[in-house]
């Protein structure tokens, strides 16, 4: 075991753990580190062409995940490693004894994940792990999409907006950016499939890509009207919300009340799809795209939903490793 520094020992002796320490402590226990490192290892460089050898993959993966959890840029992540002891401990670093990765090293690791297509495999690995814990039952799927805004200003070096992002209207408000489309397990509320598109792409056009093929039921909001006709595979039961205007226009009576009751029951099931969006946008602070183009942003979105699954399942996972959480 690595010898701890005096600063680290002093940090351990304090009486009250912070919320960040509790969060990182829980995630340290629930992330399947061995499986993820085995995924990265075949492509990860073992020695640098010039200069010092690359940082250990385990350290860089932990730093990369902290970036997603706390919505930190590369320079902000470097500063946090110098300033925050709990983050250094999570990454396995000792100040003044080991090199702290600079922002360029952090950037290169993210590009390494992007170039080798590892973000989607991280989601697959996490879901495989959750499936072994009995948390992904795959009997039904809920589909939905959310808009992630991008900078709409043209006051930049290129004097133009990101050409891969587009605008769309939701209600009476216009948005510019991309969409994250997800397929969620009906029982657990965990995300099993993620795709991204420009914001102007209709939700219904992505529905077939969000189904894993084993589900017997599919739930969706009114934006997916006609989705059952687009799906390649038949034999599923579709529960698609009726448009509010059509329900409102019905004459008062027992039929309208029955339809409203049915729509309420559908909405109760569909509500689970909002939980991953809440975790990613509120818990992890992912309000706007960080990069230019769909490729880099898609890699981040895939990683965020993989981590949101672990966060949402943490109580069950902590119980399975002997950690009883109140």
TrEMBL record:
Q: Keywords, A to Z?
A: DNA recombination, DNA-binding, Transposition
Q: Where is coiled-coil annotated?
A: none
Domain Transposase InsH N-terminal as annotated: residue spans: 18-111
The Transposase IS4-like domain sits at: 138-310
The family assignment reads:
Belongs to the transposase 11 family.
Described function? Involved in the transposition of the insertion sequence IS5.
Listed name of the protein: IS5 family transposase
């Amino acid at each position: 075991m690595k010898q701890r520094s005096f600063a680290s020992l002093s940090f351990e002796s304090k009486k009250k753990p912070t919320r960040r320490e509790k969060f990182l402590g829980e995630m340290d226990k629930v992330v399947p580190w061995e499986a993820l490192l085995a995924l990265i290892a075949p492509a990860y460089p073992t020695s640098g062409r010039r200069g010092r050898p690359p940082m250990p993959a385990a350290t860089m993966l932990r730093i990369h995940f902290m970036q997603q959890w706390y919505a930190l840029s590369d320079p902000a992540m470097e500063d946090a490693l110098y300033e925050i002891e709990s983050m250094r401990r999570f990454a396995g670093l000792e100040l003044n004894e080991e090199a702290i990765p600079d922002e360029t090293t952090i950037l290169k690791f993210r590009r390494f994940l992007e170039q080798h297509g590892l973000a989607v495999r991280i989601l697959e690995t996490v879901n495989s792990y959750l499936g072994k814990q009995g948390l992904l039952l795959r009997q039904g799927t809920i589909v939905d999409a959310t808009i992630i805004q991008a900078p709409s200003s043209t006051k930049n070096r290129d004097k133009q907006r990101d050409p891969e992002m587009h605008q769309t209207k939701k209600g009476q408000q216009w948005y510019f950016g991309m969409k994250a489309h997800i397929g969620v397990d009906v029982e657990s509320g965990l995300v099993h499939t993620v795709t991204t598109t420009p914001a102007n792409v209709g939700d219904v056009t992505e529905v077939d890509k969000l189904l894993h093929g084993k589900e017997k039921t599919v739930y969706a909001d009114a934006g997916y009207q006609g989705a059952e006709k687009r799906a390649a595979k038949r034999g599923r039961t579709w529960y698609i919300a009726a448009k509010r205007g059509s329900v409102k226009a019905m004459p008062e009576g027992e039929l309208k009340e029955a339809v409203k009751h049915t729509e309420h029951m559908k909405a109760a099931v569909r509500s689970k799809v909002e939980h991953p969006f809440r975790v990613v946008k509120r818990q992890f602070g992912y309000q706007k795209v960080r990069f230019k183009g769909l490729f880099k942003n898609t890699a981040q979105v895939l990683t965020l939903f993989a981590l949101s699954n672990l966060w949402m399942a943490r109580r069950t996972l902590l119980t399975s490793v002997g950690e009883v959480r109140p």
